[in-house]
Amino acid sequence: MDIKEIKNEIKQLQQYLKILRKEESKFWKPKHQDRYWYVNGSGVVMEDEFDSFSEKTFNNFGNIYSTRMEAFFMSRKQAYTYQLHKYAREHNENLLNWKNETQEKWYIFYNYNTKELEYDYDLTCKNMGVVYFTSKQIAQEAVKKVGEENIKEFLFNILYKKS
User: Fold this and answer.
1) Residue 7, number of CB atoms within 10 A of its CB
2) Considering the entire predicted model, what is its pTM?
């Protein structure tokens, strides 16, 4: 790897870290004729110029990003979230009944102390945006299918160090 490639990789990592920290920053709103990136219906990152059409079609749905890297990150996040939902639909033993106080509804969470994915369940409280499974085993199998590193990196915004 030459110095140019190293500098390019450092720049990409800096952009990636910026994306991970963006949760704490203000929302970016492009101005007329600004360049922006979005994810098309096939999951491909596209670039365009901001105008009144793009404001109505992309900005109102949250599909508009200030960098290509941010758009790519969000396309992966959406893909892995979909894969977890799909796995739950295909493998859950029965329908979730939120009025049933004895039915466990398992979910995946990231523990910042242990730096690991862990599992817990709710009985009657449903959290926004969470994928639920009818058993811990099915949740664990879903993690194996989608990939623990993918879930940590793209769904919990944990920079995963590959060795």
Assistant:
1) 10
2) 0.77
